[in-house]
Every structure is written in structure tokens, then in C-alpha cells.
């Protein structure tokens, strides 16, 4: 070879050759890997750094293809060992990568039965690279360390402590007779993690935390000490590091090697209050699966969670965490339950409010304890269960599973109540194991899939809960006669609360279902109240208006159900109409008034129900039949005698099962560029134009939508021609400037605008004389929007000042 | 060739760092510090000894350059004296931040010495100014050709803003002088960072030659816990701190914590600190830690979010707060004034640095828990507040020294800037664990280190051809080995080639083949043949062979 040529064209040409070898080796599977490795190994000891680096990456490519057996891995490993101390950063990086790969191969072989000392050796070698001056090399070294499968405890412990641990057993200085080279002895692993978590670069800190957690499953003693280091990382200034730390802790908890100590609690409770919601969630997730050895710690964890609940009320998943904590610490929870039961018994009526986050939280914990308690060793007072029934929705969310029926019946049974149990499958405590600490290796994958299915489960849970709530309402309705009304009312109230809590996280058609159920519950509640009023001997003690108001409210609820939902199926429609019928009957019986209009309506409804049931797919209820009979008979003389109580007694609630296709009709109304700070200006007495942005969801073309504007006494309705809207039935929107005529003679006023939908009963109109407004009763589609106006004069005067 | 190392200061002690290394005839002075403990001639290094080897020369001709690692007085304190009084006029190198901050330190010290203690002035304000004019600033990893042979380069050392490790090279002989360094990063400074270099000598500091420090996280956690507990109980926290380093470090720590915990309690800086120091830190972002470099484009971390303007009247205001005040050891000034007001309440907290000079209030507070401190005969302070101690040292520990030494793998190590017993302990470790000869000379001693010399030799074409044919011949054998079950021998073999090294005067060295040598010398080859002989005649035969060889 010519001397000059070699000098003028150094690395690149050789590097090219090595580069050619690499991909070539990896692509041609048929070629002999031994030959390739031999060639690459000889290049790896070459003169030029680029060539060495390429040779190493080539080796890595070959190594990935071959199986663990044979001497190939040893060959690569021996070649790499020398290059770990190379002057060039790139080569050190490639060498570390290759050693990591070798370690994986060794581990694979070990499963088939090989010697474990080699793993220790590789671990030490990688550890010595974790203090390299080059950031990438450090990251790669920790990465490779995280993949180690079996390392002896002594080496692991040394990697945590900067001080050199003197061990008496022979395994320290030499590994089973094999003498280590002087530079590669125990001390080189000393404190690599202590350094790693203090590294200047957050990338290194992150990966060091990950590795710390990943190795924890190998040794318990190590796990405990690693926890100290990880706890300190919660103070790190980079969020990514804090999150990785929490992830590492969670992994440790999943593998059952996380045992929290008292000294860690302060730090841990601090994170529960973190300003970042992601961090808070991660911290809670850990708390839900960790094992707390002392009652004191358990209590402080509860206090921390409750405090979090008070500070961030939107963190509803805290209840789920409370449940799993309680379940994991049965005896501690039983302790809490006892104290809580005492508190409940001591509190006189009204003093103990279930709404208080603290009580709710403690109830959650108390109930959970009984859950895993198959042998019934724990003594949970029954009063706890009866108080926990309203929290049913939360508990089922915490359990995240389908067995709603059994859960509810379980609660009732524990509470000592007999409640249409015949329909429900009896619960077995052993079925619920979703959050318990498991030490099985495969749990990790399971945990991940759980996360994916949660969203789907949410929907299922909501559907199930809705069904059960409706069952409950039916049950309550049946109970009106035997039980006192107060009890029924409280059941209905809790049901409604439940629906509201379910509705918090729902969207789309699920939220429509829930909002329908809410209206439905409103109606039932009102009917119950009205019934109660009617039964009172001296109903006027409460003043005549009370009943009036209740009736008015009932009308509104029924109207909402009737008009604000698209896609009501026949079953639901009949139910809604029956409600409407009942509302009219109540009015008739109470006031005895019988205008032609009301009777017309009544007949229209009866006919309509008849029509719906005509084809026999749906049977006419006893109630409808009775009403039909009475009115067909009585209508002849024009004054129907209505005994409402008989009607109420035969009125029957049939829980609907099918809510498919149900969609809520909603609207959004906005006015551009104005708020209370920036009012619109007007000249009094003259009309003023307001630019409205309107959008409507799930309206059909035959709906009659109005814009209602109210200022003081003056009301103005504007009919909205839906053909002017853009979009489809699902969502249409429109921007229009609409004049408001009756501006008051004042320097400022507030215009309350709202979109309303007309609620017709056939062609019967309430306000038949045309005053420009809707023909019939209306229902609001959105909240009232306040638009602020200020007189132009006033404004000018202010400017001139 | 050798490297001669004359230790003028910081040999088996801490203070007046000064090492003069002679590499291949070039003299480099590393650091030029003063000893704060002495007030006589011992305070400066004995510069005259440099001239002892070369009689008749002055400093400028005897020394190629002076390199200063950082702005602490025990590393730079004697520089104005050396340049202005002793008369050295050669080049002086230091990093940009050192050049910016050094005059402040020097002038501050001169004032204290002359104005407060009434000592004789060693150098004047003008001397400092003139001295700084001669300084040539260095950047990190910038290679400077001081003269034809001498090359120096600075590497990041952590420790303080602008601290550097210096690499010097003459010909093939190379060495590194570390100055003070820190291998673990803190909030505002990074860890020392250096390339893998081929070194003959490493001169390293050894302040903590024996100590292995535990994780700083634990200390930080305790500190934050104490502060948080105090302020949430409505107390006031006094943090006495020096203007540079510790104050910024702690303030970044608190500022972060405040942000995360969403605390609204004000943090104050007493005026003197903010103006100068923070301004320099903001300007010299490039010399701080990675985290600050990453974030300063969005937000300069030295623009502390939770730090509010402070006014003297705030001392007596009710409600919790955190206050940074100078000087660090409560030896007087503003921090003493605040301490007097706040010490009597048990709700308040004072955090002290790890080390306080004897005689200061800080020292009194650290030794035991006094309930009453007498300032003078008439005034005394009731101390009821809590005391928290936070050690904070920007020096590397023994583990760090070992790590750096192992990473650089020099042929020889010299320890300076430490205490003798600890140094000897570390020397043992380096020699036994790393297998490197190690020295820790006392002041004014010289250590001579042999250096490696690389020789460039050329090879003839024939030699190379013969080598490659030999390799090709071995090839198949090797592949056979690999195919076998155990491969450990496969790459253990060295590729040996035989040749003759020819070194002639005034010519480059050369490697030749055997027959080429004969050609070159014009000699004929003799061959020696062996015959099996009886034991009794071996002696004769051997003499024959020796004779034959001699004739060849």
C-alpha cells in the first residue's frame, strides 16, 4: 500500500468498507454469521475511529439476527470490552450498545441454564460506563442496565452507594473463582445511581430513574434503598423526571416490591398536592396499589387524599383510589369503619352531611374493606353499608367492571335491607380483584390493557347504572303505599345525585341518556310530592301556591322530555305521554277547572297513545286504559269527575331498557364581542341590532325554534327559519343580526336572550290570538344569555368627561 | 523528555495554589494564589525559586505563560503582586468570567486588608487594573498556541462560574491541571467535563481526598422541608449567604419549589447581592449548567419569579418571608442586623452554611445551641429561633477524584490542594486500585515525571507486502477456530510481523525486511545450519554459532 495514499485518504474509505459489511451482514440471512463477525471484529480493532464505530454497529446488526447459542456472542463481547475505553465518544457509545445486546443474549441463554456470574460481570462493565463524560454514553449505559435480568444483590447494592461496601463473602472481590481485572472490580459500580440521579442532564436523570425502578424486582433490599433515591427525585425541577420517577414507583408497586416507609410519607403527600394534574394522578395511582405497613401511615395517606379532594374537587378519581387503598388494607379500613360508624351514630339528623368529601371518602374506605374479606373476619358495622348505598356509582366506577347488579345487591344485603333481591344475582366477594396488589410478573401488561378499555367500560358502566337507577325508581314507586313518603323521596334524591355524578364525565349520546333520566326522575319526584300534597288533609296549610308551583314544574319537566330529545322510541314516547296525561289529571283534580283547551289536550294525548299502541307492539297500560274509560264515559256531560288518587295508584313506572338513538336537542347562543365589561351601545327608544351566533344540535326541520328576548317587562319573540341555518340535523349554525325593538328609556339595561323550542300538542294552540309569539308552551334549549347595553348618550358623556 | 513539576503553593495544604510545570523546556505557571491564613511573606508563593534553575533570567523570559483556573483568591490573589511587583510581563490566560469577576474579588480583598485591618498595601488599585489589562481571555475547548511548541486548552470544571481545567501540551508530552473542580452538578453549575486525553501527568486538587459525600438530594430535601415548615407556621427565614454561588444556588432551589408548591410567600434579596452578582450570572449564561442553558431562552432562571424588591422597613413587617442577606457568616453588616430582630422568635429559622470562621456569630450558632449571644458588653441577643445547617461545597469528593483519574488514565498523578494525611490515603488508593504512580509533594518540592515519546517510522513496501501475505495465510486458520465451539482464542491473537528497525543519525527511522537490510548494507547473507551433536560437544558448537553471528 502506498504510504502517501493511506495518509491522504484515511478513515472514510475504511469506514465505507465497514459500513458495507454491516448492512450487508444484516440483510443476507443466508451468509455465514461467523465469517462476518470475524471480518467485523478485525475491523473493530482497526486504526481509524470511524471504521471502528461502523464495525461495532455492524456487529450489533449481525448479533441481532443470530440466536443466543454458539460462541458468536462471546466473540463480540470480547472485542467490545477493549473498545469501552476508546478515546472516541462514538465508539464508546457503539460499544456500550453492543455490550447491552450481548447481555440480552447472555440472559436468553441463562434461561436455558447458563452461569449467572457472567451477568454480574457485564453489569459491572456497563456500570463503569455510567460515569462516562459523554452524555449519550451515560444514557446508553443506563438503558442497557435497565434490561439486565439477573444480577447478584451485592452488586446491585453497591450500585446505589458511593461508599464501597465491604463484603465478606468471596463473591465480592472475585466472582466465583474467576479473577476480575483490576479496573473492573466492585468499586466501578459504586454509586452509579447516586450519580445518575444527580446528573446535569435531565435525559440521564430520567433514564437513571427508570433503571432504578426496573432493577427493583431483582432484590428486595435493593428496592428499599432505591426507594430512598427515587423519593428524592420528586423534588427534581424537570417535570419529565418527576413523571418518570412516579412511573418507576408504580412499576415497583406492580411488582410488589414497593414498601413505603414513614419517612417517605411527607414527600409523597406533598406530591398529592402538586400543581400539575398529571403528577397528582400518577401519585394517586401509586398510592392505590402500595402497601402501607402502619396504621398511622394509612391514616395520613387518607388525610392527604381528603385534603386533595378539598383542594381540587375536580379530581373525582380520588374516590377510586380510596377504595383500592381500603381494599388493600382490610384491617386498617375496618378500624376507620368503626370510628366512622360511631360518628354516624353520634350525629343527630342533618348534622352528618353525606356531601362532605371527608365522609364520602371515609365511607368509600370502610365499604372497600369488606370487599376482599371472604372469611368475614372483619367487623364492618351495617350502618356503614346503608350509608354507602348512595355512593354506589362511585364504587362501581372504582371497581370498573360490569357486575353492577351484584354490587348493589351486595350493598343492600350487607346493610340488612331486603330490596327486590329476586332479580339480582347474589354477589360473591371474591369476584372483585381489580386493584389488589399482585405480585405476578405478567400484571404489567394487564394494567396497560385495563387503561385502554376504561373508556369503553365507562360507557358500559353508565348504561348499567342507568338501568339500575330506573329499577330503583320503580321499586321506590311501588313502596309509596307501604312506606312513608319521606323514605321514597330520599331514595329518589340519591338516585338523582347518582345520575348527576355519572353525568360529570359523560359525553355524546350517553350524556343525552343521563339528562333524559334526570328529567324523568324530576317528574317522578314531583308526582310523588304532588301526591303527598293531595293526601294531606289540610293542604292549604302550605298555601295554595305550593301545589301550583309543583304542577308548573311538572309541566316543564314533561315538556322537556317531550320536546328536547330526538329519537325517542315508542316505549319512551308512550311513557312521556303518560306523564303528560298524569300532569293534566293532577291539574284537573286539584283545581277542578276544565277548559276546553285542557280537555282537547287530554283527548289528543289519549288518542296519540292509542295510536302508538295500535299495532300491538306495545301494550296499553292499565293507567291509560282507565283514563280512556273514565273520559269516554264522563265527557258527555262535560264535567269529568276525577279522583286523582285512584289514577295514581294504578299508574305504573316501567323502567325503559332501550335508549338507543336518544339524542338531546341543545342549543348554544352567543353574542360576539361583548360582555358586562364591554356593553353594546344603543339609543333609547330606537331599535338596536344584536349579532347572535346560534348553533343547534339534533333539531329536525319541523321543529319550531324561537329566539326569546326579554328586557324588563317587554318580551319579544323572533321566529328562526331553520332553512337559514348551515349544516345538517346533527349540528347546524347561523349568525344573524336581530333587532330588539322595545329598548327601555334607561341609561343601561340587560337583555336576557334565550333559544326556545315550541312544544305542541297536535294542532292545539294555547295562545291562539296572534301576538307574534309561539303558538304553544315553550321549553328553553339553553341557559339565558345576558347581553348588556348602555345608552350611547351615557357613553358619550363619559368620554367627554 | 520529562515534565518537572515545581509546587510553589498548595502542596500538602490548602491555599496559595501555584504550580510551575516545565514541559520540554517550556514553563507554565498554573494559578497564582495567596494564602489567607498567613499575613507575612508566606502569604505569597516563593516565586524566586522559579529562577533558581535558570540564573540570570527574569520572570518574563523564564515563564512562557501564566494560566489562572478561577477567581477565588487562593488561586488568583498573588497575580497583581507577581505582575506588578515582581515584574512578569508575559501572557496571562483565564476564562472570560474569571476575567470579569477577578478584579471585583481582588479589589474587595485589597480594601478589607488595607482599610479595615490597616495593613501595608501589597498592591494598589492601579496595579490590579494594569494586571488585568495583560490578561488574555480563554474560551472553553479553545486551543491556544502560546508559542511554537506550547498548546493550552481549557475544559469546564464546575466549582464556580468560569472555573476551568487546563490541558497543556508540548510535543508529545501532555498534562492536565484541574484547579478546583466539581464532578457532581448543582442547580446553577454543571459537572466538570473533559475529553478522553492521552496524558503523562494529571495534577488534581484533593480537598476531599478521603470523604465520600452522600447525595445532595437528601440535604436539599431537609432544607426545603425546614423552610416550608417555618413559613407555613408564619415564621421568617433568614439565609445569610455570600454574593456569588451559594445565594444563586439556594435561590434557584427555592424558586423552583415555590413554583411547584404554589407558595405565595415573598423571597427577598438584600440589595447588594442582586445588583452585581445576578447581573453577571445573567450575562454569563453559557458558563452555567445545562438546565439553565436549556431554559434561559424562555425564561432566565436568574430572573427569579418569586423574588420581590426588598426595603429595609420590611424587617419589622409581620407575616412569613424568606430573606437572603450578606455576609454569609453573620459576621456583621445587614445579615447581623436582621438576625438581631428575628432571632428572639421561635417561629423563625436561620440557615447557616456548612462552614463558618471562628469568632463569627455563625460559628457560635453552629457550635452547640446557644440561647443568648453577647455582641458586646451592653448588647446581647436572645436566640430562640431554629437553626438549620446546609453544607454546600463546590469541590468534588474522593469518589469524584477517582472517577476523573480513572477516566483520564494518565501515566502519573500529582495531588495538590489538600491535607497531608488524606492525600496519602488517596495516593494509596490511586496506586493500588488504578495502578498509577502518584505523588503529593510539599511546597517548594519538585517532581520529575518521565514522558512518553512517539517516534514516527516509515515502512518499506516490501515489509508491508510480507506482512499482509502472512496475515492472509493465517486467515483460514482463524476461521476454523471460530467454527469450533469455544472461540475465546479467536481474537486473542496479535498480528505479529517481523522486521528490522533501522535508526540512523539525521534520518527518519525505518522498518525493513531482512533481505532489504542486507541489500542496504551491501552484505551477503550467511546461513547457519545446526546439526545434532552429542552432549559432550555442545559447548564447542555454541561458540561456533556466536562467532558466526558476530561476523554477520
> How much is the average pLDDT of chain A?
76
Q: Helicity range of the residues of chain B?
A: 25-40%
- Principal-axis shape of chain B: elongated
Q: Main β-sheet of chain B, in a few words?
A: 7 strands, mixed
Q: SS-based structural class of chain B?
A: alpha/beta
Look up the CATH topology of one domain in chain A: Immunoglobulin-like
Supply the number of helical segments of chain A.
Answer: 31
Give the number of DSSP strands of chain B: 25
Low-confidence stretches of chain A: 1-12, 22-29, 168-184, 418-452
The number of helical elements of chain B comes to 17
CATH topology of the largest domain in chain B: Metallo-beta-lactamase, Chain A
Number of strands of chain A: 12
CATH class of the largest domain in chain B: Alpha Beta
Percentage of residues in DSSP E strands of chain A: 5-15%
Structural write-up:
Chain A: It comes from Triticum urartu. Chain A: This is Integrator complex subunit 4. Chain A: InterPro entries: ARM-like, ARM-type_fold. Chain A: One of its GO terms (cellular component) is endosome. Chain B: Keywords: Hydrolase, Nucleus. The complex is a heterodimer of chains A (801) and B (552). Chain A is built from 31 helices and twelve strands. With 801 residues, chain A is an alpha+beta fold. Chain A has a domain at 665-800: Immunoglobulin-like. In chain A, the strands form three sheets. In chain A, strands 4, 6, 7, 10, 11 and 12 form a six-stranded mixed β-sheet that branches. In chain A, strands 3-5-9-8 form a four-stranded antiparallel β-sheet, with no helix packed on it. Chain A has a two-stranded antiparallel sheet with strand order 1-2. Chain A is elongated, with a radius of gyration of 37 Å. Chain A starts with a helix and ends with a helix. Chain B is of the alpha/beta class. Chain B folds into three domains: 2-212 and 394-447, 4-Layer Sandwich (Metallo-beta-lactamase, Chain A); 216-390, Rossmann fold; 455-470 and 498-552, no CATH class. Helix content of chain B is 34%, strand content 20%. Chain B is built from 17 helices and 25 strands. A seven-stranded mixed β-sheet of chain B has the order 6-5-4-3-2-1-22. Chain B has a seven-stranded mixed β-sheet with strand order 7-8-9-10-11-20-21, covered by helices on one side. The two termini of chain B are 35 Å apart. Classes of the chains: A alpha+beta (801), B alpha/beta (552).
Amino acid at each position: 500500500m502506498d504510504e502517501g495514499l493511506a495518509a491522504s485518504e484515511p478513515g472514510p474509505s475504511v469506514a465505507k468498507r465497514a459500513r458495507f459489511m454491516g448492512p450487508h451482514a444484516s440483510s443476507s440471512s443466508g451468509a455465514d454469521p461467523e465469517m462476518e463477525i470475524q471480518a467485523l471484529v478485525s475491523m473493530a480493532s482497526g486504526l481509524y475511529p470511524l471504521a471502528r464505530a461502523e464495525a461495532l454497529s455492524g456487529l450489533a446488526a449481525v448479533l441481532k439476527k443470530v440466536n443466543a447459542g454458539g460462541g458468536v456472542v462471546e466473540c463480540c463481547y470480547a472485542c467490545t470490552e477493549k473498545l469501552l475505553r476508546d478515546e472516541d465518544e462514538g465508539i464508546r457509545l457503539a460499544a456500550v450498545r453492543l455490550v447491552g445486546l450481548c447481555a440480552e443474549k447472555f440472559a436468553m441463554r441463562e434461561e436455558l441454564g447458563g452461569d449467572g456470574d457472567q451477568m454480574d460481570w457485564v453489569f459491572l462493565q456497563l456500570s463503569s460506563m455510567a460515569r462516562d463524560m459523554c452524555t449519550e454514553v451515560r444514557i446508553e449505559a443506563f438503558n442497557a442496565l435497565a434490561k439486565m435480568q439477573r444480577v447478584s444483590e451485592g452488586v446491585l447494592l453497591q450500585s446505589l452507594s458511593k461508599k464501597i461496601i465491604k463484603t465478606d463473602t468471596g463473591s465480592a472481590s472475585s466472582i466465583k473463582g474467576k479473577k476480575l481485572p483490576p479496573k473492573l472490580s466492585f468499586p466501578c459500580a459504586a454509586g452509579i445511581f447516586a450519580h445518575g440521579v444527580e446528573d446535569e442532564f435531565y435525559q440521564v436523570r430520567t433514564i437513571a430513574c427508570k433503571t432504578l425502578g426496573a432493577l427493583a424486582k431483582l432484590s428486595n433490599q435493593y428496592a428499599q434503598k432505591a426507594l430512598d433515591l427515587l423519593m428524592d427525585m420528586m423534588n427534581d425541577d424537570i417535570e419529565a423526571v418527576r413523571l418518570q420517577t412516579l412511573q418507576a414507583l408504580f412499576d415497583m408497586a406492580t411488582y410488589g416490591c414497593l414498601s413505603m416507609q414513614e419517612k417517605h410519607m411527607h414527600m409523597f403527600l406533598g406530591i398529592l398536592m402538586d400543581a400539575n394534574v398529571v403528577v397528582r394522578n400518577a401519585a394517586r395511582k401509586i398510592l392505590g396499589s402500595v402497601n402501607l405497613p402502619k396504621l398511622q401511615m394509612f391514616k395520613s395517606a387518607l388525610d392527604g387524599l381528603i385534603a386533595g379532594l378539598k383542594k381540587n374537587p375536580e379530581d373525582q378519581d380520588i374516590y377510586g383510589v380510596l377504595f383500592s387503598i381500603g381494599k388493600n388494607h382490610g384491617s386498617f379500613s375496618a378500624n376507620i369503619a368503626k370510628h366512622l360508624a360511631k360518628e354516624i351514630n353520634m350525629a343527630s339528623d342533618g348534622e352528618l352531611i353525606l356531601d362532605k368529601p371527608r365522609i364520602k371518602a371515609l365511607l368509600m374506605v370502610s365499604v372497600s374493606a369488606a370487599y376482599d374479606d371472604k372469611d368475614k373476619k372483619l367487623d364492618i358495622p351495617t350502618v356503614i353499608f346503608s350509608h354507602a348505598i348512595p355512593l354506589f356509582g362511585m364504587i362501581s366506577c372504582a371497581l370498573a367492571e360490569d357486575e353492577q347488579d351484584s354490587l348493589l345487591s351486595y350493598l343492600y344485603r350487607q346493610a340488612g335491607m331486603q330490596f327486590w333481591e329476586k332479580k339480582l344475582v347474589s354477589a360473591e366477594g371474591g369476584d372483585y380483584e381489580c386493584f389488589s396488589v399482585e405480585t405476578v410478573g405478567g400484571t404489567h401488561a394487564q394494567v396497560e390493557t385495563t387503561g385502554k378499555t376504561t373508556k369503553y367500560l365507562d360507557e358500559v358502566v353508565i348504561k348499567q347504572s342507568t338501568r339500575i337507577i330506573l329499577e330503583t325508581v320503580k321499586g321506590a314507586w311501588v313502596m309509596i303505599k307501604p312506606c312513608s313518603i319521606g323514605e321514597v323521596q330520599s331514595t329518589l334524591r340519591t338516585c338523582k345525585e347518582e345520575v348527576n355524578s355519572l353525568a360529570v364525565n359523560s359525553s355524546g349520546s350517553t350524556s343525552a341518556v343521563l339528562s333524559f333520566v334526570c328529567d324523568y326522575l324530576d317528574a317522578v319526584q314531583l308526582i310523588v310530592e304532588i301526591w303527598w300534597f293531595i293526601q294531606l288533609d289540610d293542604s292549604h296549610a302550605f298555601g295554595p301556591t305550593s301545589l301550583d308551583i309543583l304542577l308548573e314544574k311538572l309541566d316543564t319537566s314533561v315538556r322537556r322530555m317531550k320536546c328536547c330529545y330526538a329519537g325517542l322510541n315508542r316505549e319512551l314516547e308512550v311513557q312521556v305521554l303518560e306523564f303528560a296525561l298524569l300532569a293534566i289529571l293532577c291539574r284537573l283534580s286539584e283545581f277542578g277547572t276544565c277548559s276546553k283547551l285542557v280537555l282537547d289536550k287530554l283527548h289528543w294525548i289519549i288518542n296519540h297513545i292509542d295510536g302508538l299502541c295500535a299495532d300491538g307492539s306495545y301494550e296499553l297500560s292499565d293507567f291509560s286504559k282507565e283514563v280512556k274509560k273514565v273520559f269516554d264515559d264522563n265527557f258527555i256531560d262535560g264535567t269529568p269527575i276525577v279522583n286523582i288518587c285512584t289514577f295514581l295508584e294504578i299508574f305504573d313506572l316501567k323502567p325503559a331498557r332501550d335508549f338507543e338513538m336518544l339524542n338531546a336537542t341543545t342549543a348554544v347562543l352567543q353574542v360576539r364581542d361583548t360582555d358586562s365589561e364591554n356593553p353594546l351601545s344603543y339609543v333609547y327608544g330606537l331599535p338596536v341590532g344584536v349579532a347572535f351566533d346560534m348553533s343547534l344540535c339534533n333539531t329536525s326541520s319541523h321543529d319550531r325554534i324561537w329566539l326569546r328576548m326579554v328586557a324588563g317587562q317587554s318580551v319579544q319573540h323572533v321566529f328562526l327559519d331553520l332553512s337559514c341555518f348551515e349544516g345538517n340535523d346533527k349540528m347546524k349554525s347561523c349568525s344573524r343580526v336581530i333587532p330588539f325593538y322595545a329598548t327601555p328609556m334607561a341609561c343601561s339595561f340587560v337583555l336576557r336572550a334565550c333559544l326556545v323550542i315550541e312544544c305542541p300538542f297536535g294542532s292545539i294552540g294555547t295562545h291562539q290570538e296572534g301576538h307574534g309569539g309561539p303558538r304553544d308552551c315553550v321549553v328553553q334549549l339553553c341557559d339565558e344569555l345576558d347581553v348588556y347595553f348602555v345608552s350611547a348618550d351615557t357613553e358619550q358623556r363619559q368620554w367627554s368627561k | 523528555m520529562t515534565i518537572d513539576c515545581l509546587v510553589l503553593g498548595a502542596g500538602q495544604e490548602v491555599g496559595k495554589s501555584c504550580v510551575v510545570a516545565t514541559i520540554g523546556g517550556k514553563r507554565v505557571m498554573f494559578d497564582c494564589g495567596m494564602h489567607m491564613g498567613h499575613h507575612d511573606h508566606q502569604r505569597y508563593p516563593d516565586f524566586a525559586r522559579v529562577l533558581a534553575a535558570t540564573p540570570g533570567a527574569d520572570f518574563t523570559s523564564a515563564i512562557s505563560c501564566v494560566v489562572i483556573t478561577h477567581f477565588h483568591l487562593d488561586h488568583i490573589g498573588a497575580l497583581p503582586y507577581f505582575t506588578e511587583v515582581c515584574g512578569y510581563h508575559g501572557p496571562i490566560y483565564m476564562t472570560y468570567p474569571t476575567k470579569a469577576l477577578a478584579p471585583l474579588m481582588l479589589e474587595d480583598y485589597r480594601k478589607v486588608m488595607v482599610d479595615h485591618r490597616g495593613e501595608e498595601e501589597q498592591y494598589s488599585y492601579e496595579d490590579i487594573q494594569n494586571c488585568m489589562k495583560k490578561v488574555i481571555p480563554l474560551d472553553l475547548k479553545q486551543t491556544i498556541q502560546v508559542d511554537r511548541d506550547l498548546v493550552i486548552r481549557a475544559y469546564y470544571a464546575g466549582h464556580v462560574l468560569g472555573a476551568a481545567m487546563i490541558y497543556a501540551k508540548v510535543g508529545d508530552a501532555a498534562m492536565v491541571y484541574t484547579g478546583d473542580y466539581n464532578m457532581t452538578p448543582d442547580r446553577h453549575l454543571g459537572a466538570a467535563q473533559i475529553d478522553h486525553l492521552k496524558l503523562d501527568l494529571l495534577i488534581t486538587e484533593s480537598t476531599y481526598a478521603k470523604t465520600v459525600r452522600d447525595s445532595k438530594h437528601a440535604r436539599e430535601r431537609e432544607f426545603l422541608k425546614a423552610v416550608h415548615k417555618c413559613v407555613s407556621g408564619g415564621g421568617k427565614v433568614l439565609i445569610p449567604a455570600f454574593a456569588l454561588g451559594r445565594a444563586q444556588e439556594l435561590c434557584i432551589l427555592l424558586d423552583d419549589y415555590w413554583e411547584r408548591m404554589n407558595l405565595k410567600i415573598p423571597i427577598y434579596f438584600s440589595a447588594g447581592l442582586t445588583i452585581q452578582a445576578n447581573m453577571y450570572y445573567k450575562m454569563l449564561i453559557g458558563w452555567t449548567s445545562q438546565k439553565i442553558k436549556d431554559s434561559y431562552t424562555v425564561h432566565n432562571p436568574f430572573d427569579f419569579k418569586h423574588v420581590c424588591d426588598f426595603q429595609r422597613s420590611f424587617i419589622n413587617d409581620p407575616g412569613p418571608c424568606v430573606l437572603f442577606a450578606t455576609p454569609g457568616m453573620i459576621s456583621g453588616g445587614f445579615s447581623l442586623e436582621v438576625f438581631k430582630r428575628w432571632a428572639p422568635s421561635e417561629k423563625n429559622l436561620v440557615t447557616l452554611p456548612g462552614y463558618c470562621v471562628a469568632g463569627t456569630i455563625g460559628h457560635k450558632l453552629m457550635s452547640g445551641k446557644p440561647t443568648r449571644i453577647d455582641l458586646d458588653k451592653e448588647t446581647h441577643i436572645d436566640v430562640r429561633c431554629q437553626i438549620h445547617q446546609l453544607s454546600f461545597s463546590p469541590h468534588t469528593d474522593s469518589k469524584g477524584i477517582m472517577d476523573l483519574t480513572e477516566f483520564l488514565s494518565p501515566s502519573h498523578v500529582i495531588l495538590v490542594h489538600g491535607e497531608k494525611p488524606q492525600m496519602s490515603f488517596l495516593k494509596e488508593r490511586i496506586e493500588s486500585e488504578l495502578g498509577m504512580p502518584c505523588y503529593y509533594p510539599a511546597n517548594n518540592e519538585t517532581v520529575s515525571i518521565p514522558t512518553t515519546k512517539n517516534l514516527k517510522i516509515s515502512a518499506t513496501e516490501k515489509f508491508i507486502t510480507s506482512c499482509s501475505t502472512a496475515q492472509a495465510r493465517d486467515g483460514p486458520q482463524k476461521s476454523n477456530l471460530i467454527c469450533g465451539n469455544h472461540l475465546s482464542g479467536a481474537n486473542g491473537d496479535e498480528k505479529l510481523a517481523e522486521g528490522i528497525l533501522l535508526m540512523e543519525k539525521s534520518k527518519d527511522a525505518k522498518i525493513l525486511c531482512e533481505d532489504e537490510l542486507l541489500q542496504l548494507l551491501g552484505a551477503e547473507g550467511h546461513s547457519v545450519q545446526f546439526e545434532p551433536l552429542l552432549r559432550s560437544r555442545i559447548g564447542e558448537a555454541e561458540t561456533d554459532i556466536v562467532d558466526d553471528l558476530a561476523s554477520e
